[in-house]
Amino acid sequence: MNRAHHLIIVSILMILVIAIGTAGYMAIEGWDLTDSLYMAVITLTTVGYGEIHKVSKAGQIFTIFFIFTGVGISMYVLGAVVQFVIEGRIQQILGRRRVDKKILQLSGHYIVCGYGRIGQVLCKKMTTRHKELVIIENDAAISEVLDKDTLLHIIGDATDESILLKAGIKQAAGLVAALGTDTKNVFLVLTARQLNPSIYIMARASHHTSKSKLIAAGANQVEFPYDIGAARMAQRILRPTVTSFLDMAFTHHRKDIQMEEFPVGAHSPLADVMLKASGIRQNYNLIIIAIKKDDDTMMFNPSFDTILRPGDTLVAVGEEANLKKLEKILLP
């Protein structure tokens, strides 16, 4: 039985005891409801205000038994209430300390600033890839939602340096600025870039005029969610088959069609090997649809004599299990 259920039960028990005491005085002394209820309450609470009416012998005997049973129960109820409050507060403090300790131990994680509609969808997608996340949200009411979603979070202003440091920005791999206004996101990006010059920052923008400001503040990438949503709707109309394929590849609804990207590690046995000699198609039944080079140039449908260089990023399509095997080879 959890603490909340226990508190409900003892509260019902307390009401039942008061009701029995009230009914007893009404039946024995013939008092009205108000006087009987008053007598029952002051007897249980032992405040010592005195009797409002003269009590008969039968009433005195009833009061003795009522004191022995009722006062004991009332003390038990009071103790349960105090325990509920104290344990709840202690549990909250200990829970917060555990969260803070976990955040301090993170490295290479991502900080998402803002848990609104966009932030929630973003976090849901990232957790499917087992990315470590720390959410910064200024609205304390959303804390319960974050607890329910089992996400590490900090309640505070994301533009505050101390909050960003508490979220582990020095060790983080990336930060997403998804606050409600472009002005706040500009200030957040500027602060984050000063605290960690090498961190990857993606910023949300509502207006195209804000893009240059966000880039100047230090954002690596600026996205316009409304534009992306509108473009996606248009593609569903113009290219329904293509968008259906991409949905299957990105949403993990099917295990046989997945699209992933993997960097080629310096110690990979496939480093400096031609694509035709890599065995990726023969051994893993995967299709390499693109290779991104170190200078960010993209080679689509690379030829069989393309050499896989360390630092290249391969974009592959195929079954999830085979993609995981390729990842182990590329990043041994």
Task: Give a concise summary.
The chain is α/β, with parallel strands linked by helices and 332 residues long. It contains twelve helices and twelve strands. A six-stranded parallel β-sheet has the order 3-2-1-4-5-6, with helices on both faces.
How would you portray this structure in words?
With 332 residues, this protein is an alpha/beta fold. It has helices spanning 3-29, 33-45, 57-104, 117-127, 143-148, 161-166, 182-195, 211-217, 225-238, 240-251, 280-284, 320-330, and strands spanning 110-113, 133-137, 152-155, 174-177, 200-204, 221-223, 258-263, 273-274, 287-292, 298-300, 307-308, 313-318. α1 (3-29) packs across α2 (33-45), α1 packs antiparallel against α3 (57-104) and α9 crosses α10. The chain folds into 3 domains: 3-101, Orthogonal Bundle (Helix Hairpins), CATH 1.10.287.70; 107-228, NAD(P)-binding Rossmann-like Domain (Rossmann fold); 256-330, Regulator of K+ conductance, C-terminal domain (Alpha-Beta Plaits), CATH 3.30.70.1450. The chain has a 6-stranded parallel sheet, sandwiched between helices. The protein has a 4-stranded antiparallel sheet with strand order 7-12-9-10, with helices on both faces. The chain has a two-stranded antiparallel ribbon with strand order 8-11. The longest helix is centred in the N-terminal third of the chain and has 48 residues, at 57-104. It is 52% helix and 15% strand. The protein starts with a helix and ends with a helix. The protein has 12 helices and 12 strands.
